[in-house]
């Protein structure tokens, strides 16, 4: 089984290039099947989730061609069925975007209930509410979602909770509905805006993305497009926090600094110096982090996908920090792994009380999910001695070349398959 082995203690230094936003890419790939014309997508991240979704699309007759590692050509003019098989869905949650895309284009979709990371209950009731409001009938039987409609008709939809997935899925279906759809209490995340921009580039009529009210005038047909995906906010934030935790000096390139404002603000509170340019952020962290409090919130608040990483950094801070998770109820599963490395953290309900320690100690740990796995890597980079992390398939769901990029910043990390390779790495580092 593949795992990472890390020798900690090196401050990260240098430059790192951020790839395309995974969360935008997944929805944009799904949206690409809503036209019979050819679509070209650039800045496509090459990691497990996007590759699994491309395979799922090919399974229903979509033509997919990798022009290069980060560019893909898609033509969905010969889609032969509207059912996505379980082997793809169980591996990733965002496959549910295919429901909105297929329902919008073909008025029918059948998809197994999605999988992904186990970070708590993530119901799709708001998705179903939106589809029903558009005139679709949605049934769930034996963990299979079947959505169909004779026609979709625009509607006024108020989301009971801010949901990125529901906002995007309703936006997809409503783009080809008759009449106008209004989504209130819509998610405002950057990738919601990116998906709306992509749909508009294909001829959709969407206004208000990035605000809490989105208006969509349905069109009968979408056309081909060439589109470049925005940089990944969470990958960028992960490297920013890694720089802070290791007391390094890192320039994070190919980013949109505005998307990182909540992360930058917390790092400044923790004592980092942040320099921003048009498309880069530099993090200088020369001393031990300062304790602060963090609460996850929908954008533009602090992202839940950055909560494990910032908690790892605060675990090394001087003082006591409180981290409150307000989005998912099961996102502190990594804490027991971090405590094996010497962290002093007590979880009470939706909050973690983090009493900073001087250093972590290397240990054998396991990644419980994507972002927690990345957080454990950061912990390993700061720790005394050697750390091994298994279940890295979770990490590779959302980070392209994570170990390679870290090595280019001076980290001592390798991907290995066997205990013998672990021993060789430890001997080499010793």
TrEMBL record:
GO terms for molecular function: UDP-N-acetylglucosamine 1-carboxyvinyltransferase activity. Residues 7-404 form the Enolpyruvate transferase domain. Its EC number is 2.5.1.7. The active site is at 117 (proton donor). GO terms for cellular component: cytoplasm. It comes from Butyrivibrio fibrisolvens. It is an enzyme of class 2 (transferase). The keyword Ribonucleoprotein does not apply. Pathway: Cell wall biogenesis; peptidoglycan biosynthesis. The modification 2-(S-cysteinyl)pyruvic acid O-phosphothioketal is found at residue 117. The keyword Ribosomal protein does not apply. Cell wall formation. Adds enolpyruvyl to UDP-N-acetylglucosamine. The gene is murA. This is UDP-N-acetylglucosamine 1-carboxyvinyltransferase.
